[in-house]
Each structure stands twice: as structure tokens, then as C-alpha cells.
Amino acid sequence: MSLQTQQLNELHWMMEMLHTIDVGLVVLNRDYTIQIWNGFMENHSGLLPGDVKGKSLFELFDEIPEDWFRRKAESVVLLKNKAFTIWEQRPYVFKFNNYRPITGTADFMYQNTTFIPLMSTTGDVSHLCLLVYDVTDNATHKKELEKANINLAVLSQTDGLTQLFNRNHWQKCLEQEFKRYIRNHHTSTLVMLDIDKFKVVNDNYGHKVGDDVIKHLAKVIHEQVRETDITGRYGGEEFVILLADTNTNDAMIFTERLRKTVEESVFIYNDIEIKYTISIGIAEVLPTYKSASQWLENVDNALYESKNNGRNRVSVYKA
């Protein structure tokens, strides 16, 4: 075999390899017209090399932001060094559909792209090479993991029965609100409430119905509070509501409305109408409080004052 034949064979093998590798390969001249377009790009775009050669990249692919691409490319030419773009920064350069069954949840192919300067024999950058990597599997798995972590964080803060905040998370919110008060002296009011004679409901109808009554009350509370209010299940049939930037008078208006709404509502179980009431205590944060626990203890005392004075009423803690 002659040297020339060997060199032609090696060139043929190299071109075959570049055409069949599972990575996109595009070569552009300095006018951003396409010179080389390998099999990966052909398969995902549906455009043959003959269809794209000598044509402007931006005319063929209008999804590519021209200003951004030119800035990226010119920095590669100027510095004569590689540059990269990853899917977290920009999901794709070429908007190719995703046909991979494993990652069928993604509508398009996520891509990492490498920009490589190609030198002429004089040492000047004459062409730009793009390597396009399909990273849809990695991107999709990372997104699913992030979503799962978010869902897990929500579950760790949520009471399973009522879907309100659980006691652990709610008390953390109370501690933060108390620290905010120490710093800024923004008035806030704490509300604690529970279902009157709840044991009678459990004794007469069973604990399953008791749980349904608790869920019914949680729904009523959720409908009455503002988005900025922090609501949680304190335990059993007890609930707590943190009314940020709210004084005692405004808290009285809110709690009276809530009390009347519950009193007038009806929970139906097997065609049986179950009516119930709630007792409420409220306590505005005071400069004399040394801790959030003291604030919580005082609103608990106000709740028991409502219970001791006949139930189905609102009581305000008086220092």
C-alpha cells in the first residue's frame, strides 16, 4: 500500500468517524456560514449537509439569538480559546426535539455546547467549530431530583391530616417572627383556637369522623386567612395562626369573623349534620416578652379563658 493510499484511507476513516459520532459537529467560517454538518446534526435537524452548506446559521435557525451567539463566538476568536455554554445557562443552542424514550418528559433536547477556534496555517482563527452534546438524560434527572427535593421539603413542613403547617415548622416561623419583632418592632398577633367539646364528637361518631371535623375546620381557616398569615396545626384539635403586622383590634375582627363562620357552618357525615364551635385566644406581642415561648404561653392562657367562660368566644390576653 502506497503512502498516498494510506493517507487517503486515514482521511476516509476520520471523516466517517466525525460523521457517525453521537455528538453534533458544526464548522462555521467567519461569516457564520456552515461548512461542515455531521450526521448527528443531520439526524436531529432533518437537514442534509448539502442543504445547509454555505448558508447562514442564523437564517436556518432563527431560535439562535444572533447577538448572544456573535458575542460568544467573537470572544473565542479574540482570545483563541475555547468557550462553553451549559444547559443550566441556556437549555439549547439548536432547538431539536427530544425523541429519547427514557426522557420522554422533555419536549426538546437539552444541550451543552463547546465553541472551539480553528487556526489557519498563519495562526489566525479562520473557522469556528461547535460541538453539541445531548445531555437530556442528565438534565431531566437533575430537574426531577430538584422537584423531588422541593416536594420532600414541603412534606417535612406539612401536617398530614390538615395540609397546614405542622407544629415543628410553625414554631420555627414563630421564632423568626419574634426575632423580627425584636429587630423592627413590627406588631404581630398570635391566635390559638380549638374545637369545643371535641371529645363528644369522637365519643358519638368515632375518631374517623373526628378527623374529618378537624379537616373541615382546617379548610375553613384556610379560606379565612390571608396569604401572609402563617397557619398550622398545634396538636390534636388545636390550631395556631400568626397574624403578621396585625394589632389586637384587627385580630379581634378577624377572629370574630372566623368564629361566626365556624358556628354557622355544617359538617355532614352520612346525612347527619354535625355542628360545632371553637374557642379562641389572641395575644399581641409585647416588649416585655423575653422569648417566643412566653408569647405562646400567653396566647394559650387566653384560649383557656375562653374555654372557662363558656366557650365559643374570643378572649384577649391582658398583661
Automatic annotation (TrEMBL):
Catalytic activity from the UniProt record: 2 GTP = 3',3'-c-di-GMP + 2 diphosphate
Cofactor requirements of the protein: Mg(2+)
Domain GGDEF span(s) in chain numbering: 186-319
Protein EC: 2.7.7.65
One CC-aspect GO term: plasma membrane
Enzyme class: transferase
One Pfam family cited in the UniProt record for this chain: GGDEF
GO process annotations (BP): cell adhesion involved in single-species biofilm formation; negative regulation of bacterial-type flagellum-dependent cell motility; regulation of DNA-templated transcription
Name of the protein in its database record: diguanylate cyclase
A GO MF label: diguanylate cyclase activity
